[in-house]
Protein 1
Amino acid sequence: MHPSFQRHKRVAGRMVATEPAWLRFLLIGSTIGIVAGIIVIPMIFVFYKAFANGFSTYWENLFGNAEARHAIKLTLIVALASVAINTVCGVAAAWVLTKFRFPGRTFLLTLIDLPFAVSPVVAGLMFVLIFGRQGWCGPWLQEHGIRIIFSWPALILATTFVTLPFVARELIPLMQSLGNDEELAAVSLGANPWQMFWRVTLPNIKWALLFGIIQCNARAIGEFGAVYVVSGRISGETDTMAVLVQKLYESPGAMSAAYAVASVLTLMALATLGLKLLLEQRVTQSLEETAQTTGEAP
Amino acid sequence: MNRRKFRSPLPGFTSTLSVTMFWLFGWLVLPLVACVLKAATLSPSQFFAAAWSSRARSAYWLTFGASATAAFVSVLFGLLIAWVLVRYSFPGRRVVDAMIDLPFALPTAVAGLVYSTLYVQSGWYGQFLVPLGIQGYNTFLAIVLMLVFLGLPFVVRTVQPVLESLEGDIEEAAASLGASRWQTFQQVLLPSLLPGMITGFALAFARGLGEYGSIVFVMGNIPFKSEIAPALIVAQLDDYRYAEATSIAVMLLIGSFTSLGLINWLEARNRRYAS
């Protein structure tokens, strides 16, 4: 679904018919205009607003405020937990779905994509229906004093749902194209499953895995709709950074604080982009290497 | 037993399959079933009263209309951007290319916050646009602007690889047979780009249907007027009307599953044609 790292096989260099110069300039100009107007200027605006009242206000907004500190911490914990779950399960799923053929395999492959088609708000609602006070497990949970909805476990559940496909989606096509040969060789030479995984499978998939983890993490940090529904928006308790931005936006006089928190999220997004660019190069490299060693086209 | 049945000497079938089943059924299927079961506790007439009330209908209209408009605009812009990025080299091309992915990485709340400030009368864009009568805040246009931001990368990233894979010789052939550049584009290039454009449209559309995080910033969520379907679900939940919220959620799910199914069908069809 994200054909992101199969790019830059440029046709340029043997350009045949091309457009007249004025049209080229017009098209390039409009592209730069659109990307600047829609994406770049809004991003710069975040930092402009965040620092509009000086650096000390910025610092105060972020770290002088217990709620903001708590939101940053909670966001990182929730993201870490959901990324960990989706990485472990995503690798397991990619393994079983690419190395074996069994009835129901196609169905499971389709299921993995499902969260892309579910509105985050609906995802949140589903967990409320299961674990909420009036939900299916609600009475039982209440009897045993377990709180899931309006508490951090719900944040992890909902965020995991929304970010579920990212790691598996990166691994499945790659592992499919790599085939079983190397693992079969390792097993026949007497490697135990863990040795096989750490020494044969993982080195082959590490860049794609990292790529998936980064995308998963970016989405987990920024998730809003699902978290908004299951968290109950309890100040200083279940507010993640994204929800805090919205709360600050709605409370009068807290605009610069909203932008301060938003700037941290934007920095994280930029770091994600930078890492992705680096990884794209590594992935293309390793794909080419695989192609050379196996003698097949990537 | 499993090994013999599926004839693979590779280890880990049973354990990884159990993890996968737990993950997919626990996290995806169970919640979905819970949602459908909850909707099923309503009688058909109750379901329709909730899912097809006039307030719900206007929310669907707004959601579908804005998503379709935004997806359409995204396809136009995305095609242009993909074309320029693949065909021309210019200073800053790599930066523009990298920036396209920002909406994938940027939390939607941040995007919503910024757009809500840029387009008001005192904002950077609003100061020029509002006097011209273009209201980019708390209007239909505001949703579309927001969804174009979110949908654009989907289109660029589906059209770009197709453009890159096109060989120059068909264009040469068209030119040598006397076609003008525009005719070549229209009759030779566009048909091969169309599948990618449709996939991009569907992805952007599906993204728009479910979006809530950014829209909540740029809209007032006034019932009947500026309330999108996900916002209506949240409003019902805040009133503890779970069954109503679920009915609307089921309608929204049907809408987005249909578009995802359409993508898969189109992709399968393209693969058949390609081979």
Note: Chain B touches chain A through 107 residues (CB under 8 Å).
Protein 2
Amino acid sequence: MNKRLIILLVLLPVWIVVYYNLQTVTNWLVDEVLNLTSGSPFTEAFRFFIYELPKVLLLLVLIIFFVGIIRSYFSPERTRLMLGGKRQITGNILASGLGIVTPFCSCSAIPLFLGFVESGVPLGVTFSFLIAAPMINEVAVVLLFGLFGWKTAVVYVVTGLMIAITAGWVIGKLKPEKQVQDWVFELQSGNAETNNVLLTLFDRIQYGVDSVKEVVGKIWIYVAIGIAVGAGVHGYVPQDFMVSLMGKSAWYSVPLSILVGIPLYSNAAGIVPIVSVLIEKGASLGTSLAFMMSVIGLSLPEVIILKKVLKRPLIFTFVGVVAAGIMAVGFIFNFLF
Amino acid sequence: MEIKILGSGCSRCRELEKRTREALEKAGFHASVTKVDQMQDIARYHVMATPALVVDEVVETKGRIPSVEEVIQILIRHFA
């Protein structure tokens, strides 16, 4: 037991040394060892790949480990308890914040929705949670931090929260109760027992290690593909190539990016590296943000899952309100920067 | 012993089922393993995060995939 803890404590300084010397080592490898011609498309694509991939993976491992530990203090049950009986606005703000830290997988969106409804969490508040949880996830934030810098990561989180709060509030105002499938309110709850285990600090650390294994084990391949495509674009696509298509003067690019983004079901792992390079080639920040939010936060599979509990008009309202929020973010950032 | 795997058929639920069967085999227990994938049925267990492992109608884990060793420990507790 303690041996594992010691291993983790040794790994931390190793992580720091590797992370902070990555740039030097990559350049040394590319320029000295392999002696590639600096500035050629292939060299720059290659340099991009072998620098960004380990960097992003290192960040993912570290952050997901700590997020895992934090998440072990939150559960959907606890979140539901905190949201029960909360009014609009306060409830929307709280739900959006909790959406970030509560463990969530879009495959359990329905059980979570049912649990919230059962204990009387207002629908608008529930929607704030369901918008924030997938959109602001640790993988997206880590990738944004690693590939765009901390400012863009903060902008993404803050605007994402604002969309979740406002969209949930607006949906709550529209009296959505009638638009929930009837069986939801007729549910009979059973009296199944639940074995609640108290977690020790060691269990929580284990929880962190497990989430690293599970998440990084699943997404590393998408990160690798995303960065490989990004590397190709970085090396071979001419500068300013994206200006006319995704630049800020092309106003229609914001709604277009959102429309394209909804059916594009990619996790943050694959899409962020590609978008980071598009910005380098002249895509504007607002349009890029809108595109990423649409891909990550509004996904077709999730909409299909939600159809089990929501009637069609409410599905359209949900997608429409969130898309409008994303569009506002896109336009505002294109206007400001 | 009756084991139920709650979840709507995502990859995490299949992983939980695989580990549960592996745990049964390693521990040498016999039990029926059923998948519960209807939302109405899942809701009856007050489970808000899938996949969940239910042994003899007691929800043992939810929202995470326990290791094979952990599943064995749970099974032993129920078998005793």
Note: Helices of chain B lie at 11-27, 39-43, 68-79.
Protein 3
Amino acid sequence: MSAKEITVALVGNPNTGKSTLFNALTGLRQKVGNYPGVTVARKSGRCDCGDGLKVELVDLPGLYSLAAASPDEQVVTDVLLGSLEGSQQPDAIVVVLDATNLLRNLFLASQLAELNLPLALVLNQADVAHEQGLKIDTQLLSQRLGGVPVVLSSAWKGEGIASVRRAIAEVVNKKPKMSRLAWPAQVESALDVIVQAVKNDTGVAPSTADAQRILFSSNAHTSDRLGWSQAKREPIIRQARDQVRAAGYNPLAAEPLIHYAHLRKVLDGVTSGGAGKQGNAAALDRVLLHRVMGPILFTGIMLGLFASVFWLAKFPMQWIQAGVDFLKAVVAPALAGTPMLQSLVTDGIIAGVGAFLVFLPQILILFLFVSILEDSGYMARAAFIMDRLFSWCGLNGKSFVPLLSGFACAIPGLLSTRTIEDPKARLATAFAVPFMSCSARFPIYALMCAAFIGPLYGPGWESVVMVGMHCVGLIFAVPTAFVLTRFILKVKPQPFVLELPRYQMPKPRDVIWRMWQNAAEFISKAGTVIFAITIIIWALCYFPRDAQMAEKIRAAEPALSSHELQARTQAAMIEQSWMGRFGKAVQPVFDPCGFDWKITVGVLASFPAREVIVSTLGVTYSIGKGAEADSQHLRQAMQEAKWLNGPRTGTPIFSLAAVLALMVFFALCSQCGPTIATLAQETGGWKWAAASFFYMTILAWIMAVVVYQVVIRIV
Amino acid sequence: MTPLSQLLPGQYGKLASLNPERAVDQRLMALGLLPGMVLKLVRRAPLGDPLAIEFGGQVVSLRLAEAESLIVDVAADCPVQRPKKSS
């Protein structure tokens, strides 16, 4: 089926309503995946074009030009040229244009005409054009472009969808081609020079479109792909560009100059009226981008976003947690006869499912906001307002929402980095997000502050430390982003040229669909990894197991109550588990930070979720499972804990130095499996996830050592 | 001849020259900002950077540092500068 399926690519500028049109055409029968080897999402769906014709419609990321400035645009260009490995060239192209700005939108269409594929034009947002008094003679336009179908639609209102389907059917059945512009003779001959030279040097004649990319684009992507060596191509390209120069064009400006000059003639008499009308943007921008009102409204909107992700999401997260606990309580008695299976099912499998489900409320809520902000046109304004604060360290205005969300949870924050078009800024932002002090770090801060800082120094210092811990990550994230973008990432930075589009009411179907797609992708990719991590950590903490442990402890200390016996047994079990042994073995590494083996085990065992460290400390300090940050017993046990051997014998483990070191370690370390899994999902591989893990862990260790060694000498 | 960055908010200018070697200028040319095109500096961001410029029926944001190669001509055939009412 897939071999004979007809593929039609949906291409267009950003902000043309292309995705809304795609959703309207495919219903929700969509597949979301990735292009092989790259992080660009591949969205496709079945489109029913009538008369039994069904095509696979592929929604390509929006772009302004085939000149492919960014790697993401490169993917679109490669897909359309049929040169992306593992991806077939589409059989036809449907170009979606913003009817209110035909000239600019036709530039891409005019470039696409050079691909010589069947092509149709959809002038979307025709309702807005109509409101602006803009009249478009689609028949005349079609005639001037060589008879390709030109239809009007308004995907937002659901109007004209049937005619788009008919246009797709026509483009598939009749294969109309858009007429190419008449290039100046010197440019044509320059293209011939390149075609001939590539053919001579590589044995394969390139397409005209490839030759144009070589002649007009400043990057060497196309030449590299065709295997045209640098030594051979340089003199030829120089010669070809000299010919273009002889025609009076700067070679790097020739393409837009010639296309636009051609398109002005094409559009002459096609459009009328509507001049000077700017729509709603100017009036709303006067308020939303106002020097004083703009930042105030921005702060309000972002506070709403943060409160929702941080606070509102807690309720459904509690329900999921309650559901998981309920399921455990129901299942546990049924498996009471087989303790290993019982523990695997409850602490491994059910907990593992809960471990990724618990992120869904935050993801859904954040993407509710992100989709509304993007679809409404406000996101570009938010980036405009914030850009100055981020540009100096290599990020851009669009880094704000991911970083802000990171303070609630790194997972939704990382997923929202895909709103950043520039791959370099996107990667640097993704690298910085896990430094934001997420809510899962809060329990350990709360426990340490309540047990040590508060009682020793009073509530004033308690809040100072709390605020300080939330700043530590930020302090390190900024130089990290700076160094990463300035010295390490080799990708060329993209210019921050951002269209401030017309404001528009977001369409509920698009918003909900986007929320769902992000959640589904997270579950199927990062979710499975998180589940696996949970099972592995469970096994490390469970095996090997001494079935007689409880009896041995009872024999040694007969006076223990049954609760104490249970808690002591759990502590002894984890001590002699693989995790306990491993923790003891690596404790010397953490010794300079002042961590004993119990803290070390807590740090290691909390890899599936940071907040788990509190309950792990509960187990290792013999309080029993399920300890919370406000547990009096746990606080007391930790306050009383003393070094039993080594040079510090008899002194408290949790000295001020160790407490601060532990908090700083947690503020900086990458002690979060889900974050690593999501980083891998979003950066398209484990390379950056591993880099982030080792970088943050080493940084956290160094800072914990510094804090411990300095404070212990002062206090 | 004035650098674009020196236009006042609300002021119009005609693009005299740009630098096609630069990625920013290539992107702007793709959007239709070509020599001879009339543009308007709509506003600056609250922190002074980036700028919002309008040309060909669209508003585009670009950074001061990235706008340095754009030279405009505040010529007679450009619309007159309108005084800004707000703040």
Note: The domain at 2-73 of chain B is CATH 2.30.30.90 (SH3 type barrels.).
Protein 4
Amino acid sequence: MQLFGAYAVLLAFVLAVYAFVAGVVGHLRRRRRLIVSAERATLAVFPALTVAVLCLIGLIFRNDFTVAYIAEHSNRALPFYFKIAVLWSGQEGSLLFWSWLLSGYAFVVLLGGRLRPGRAADELSPKHAHRALVPLASVILAGVEVFFLALNNFAASAFASLPVGTPADGNGLNPLLQYSQMDIHPPLLYLGYVGFAVPFAFCLAALLKRYPGDRWIHITRRWTMVAWLFLTIGIVLGGLWAYKVLGWGGYWAWDPVENAAFLPWLTGTAFLHSVMMQEKRGMLKIWNVWLVFATFLLAIFGDFLTRSGLVSSVHAFAQSSIGGWFVIFLAIAVAVCLAAFFKNKDFLKSENPLESTASREAGFLFNNFVLLVAAFAILWGTLFPVISEWVEGQKISVGRVFFDRINVPIFLFLLFLTGVGPLLAWRRTSAASLKRNFLGPAILGAAVLALCLAMGWRDPYPLVCFALAAFVLAIVAMEFYRGARVLSRRSRRGLALSAVELTMRNTRRYGGYIIHVGIVLLAVGIAGSGFNQQTEGPMPYRAKLAVGPYTLTSLAYTQDDNANFSSEALIVRVDQGGREIATMYPSRRFYKASNQTQSMVADRSTLLSDLYLVYAGDDPETNQPILHAYWNPLIAWIWIGALVIGFGTIIALLPSRTAAARRENPPARVAETAEVAQV
Amino acid sequence: MTLLAAFACVFFTALAAWFVFAGDERLPEDSPAAARLRALRERKQAIYDNLRDLHFEFLAGKLAQPDYQRSRQMLETEAARVVREIQRCGEAS
């Protein structure tokens, strides 16, 4: 199985190299058979890598410790539901997993682009543009595959044998990874990172082909949304993992690897907004192309940061020599992007100018500018230790204070724009329209601000955040209400049904509003951290500790043991207002295979606040157990917000009913043509 | 076991080669004129969509009457220009 797995990775590499070379030659010399065979070779990479991945999983479950990767990252006592996580827990396996996902995307793209025999797609449908661009896009995807498969074969093979002997047991999975979130978080995050290769491939293909019209940008947008959805959920799940596992009471530490995932998210978000200007008004074409390029390059850069050991992080893989490969690939990718851009710059001419600063176009421009400022600040802060080491010879890290000070005002402004954007009209908005749309939400925001002040809250950032949250929610509610009212009048249905109909008629717009609601909930959850409380103390039998509205009482101490780990736990009674409400079990585990100790957080989560307990071991002087207790208000809204964002994105990805009806009803188009021609 | 693995490797290599080289498919090819016509039709459809959205926003009460009239006029002018161009391209081809 080991030999066959290694063979399958090599076969995938040969197929990808053929797909790339034959595709390039085929397109340069216009040889149809070469192009078709290149496409089919790209398709075949996926089954080959699926075989390889299945072989590795089989070897993991068979506890085959002759394979160095498995000996390093697994052990016999590891529960089966964590054995699957071994696949992506180390450098070599996760690179194979990355290549497999990339080939899976390419497979879906290629299958999606195939026309049924004997049927041509409607020339105005995205399918036509998709089919026209797929041959070149698949060559670009094959080029990316060649890089990752070269790593899989020649730099970090997951099937390499141990140099000598076979150990009786493996070193075990890193205890930090032995959590349920680790079965979901990395795959989703990788689906996000890897997914940005698809819009990049379509965008570059359209640029190289000088594909006329704007359909290619629709395809690029849809694939960006898919990757963005996965990356968003992946990032939030990473935060949930950090919160539940790392035991410091928080979920985001501006760690370099966290930032690496956040950078393509920011540029991808900027693109998903600015693309509307190209679709609606034929503007910002150069900007959009570079946002797609930047998003892909930042995704690769993020992978480089995580894998090269350039920066130190709890999320990073061990230091390795593959950084050089990434630098070369990034340099080639940047050179290709620049060459394609300068050769075809005239293809990206804007069709319309910006007419007014009080317009939706200007709102999107501001939004893009602010998102890119945030991305630059985060990139700067992340690379500062590396830059300072080059310049000064000394590593200087910027901490959480730097990132918070720069980014909190930026993100509050973004929250404001989230509300403002949808209410501005395209081209120009008059003072009368502004007043009509903004007055109600602005009054509500001001009322929430006054209420917070009356409650004695003085921290400015949470105050502004809550006021803006009310402002944005009011605007979104107003958008749904106004639209549903129009449909309700026409169809005589209730408002709720009309709101559903409204959403399905324009999934993109109303899905977008649902995403905005998710962003608001997430912001409220983050703002709650302004009210966090924490305390720590020794907890011998019957000792008490107070945090937030809770009183904690130590009841007992217990121990347990199994094949994978031994554990010790504190039993803590939780009282609120003199009434017992829960018993919690913060514990510590000692993992036998890896000889590592890990705190297991006990978390009691409600919609209003979390009580978060960490058993920090025994005080070496007094031998008494030490408990860290955190009271974190509103944190559950972060996870709820992420779910709402996911739901909104899925809605936005669905085809709108009106668009589908239009495509199926060409006579209406003809009638419209005649009508407008008379204008 | 090794012999079986070697046999499987040969079999899958042959299968992959057959899959890559056995297929044939027509690829969509547009003449420059047809591509231009298609791009114009896409633009026309986008303008119509914009007109529909604008009208809906007006009905929903988001736009003041003068804003609506001005935007509608601009879009109709743009649509008429695109439609004329489509007709020219259609006649030329």
Note: The longest helix of chain B spans residues 32-59.
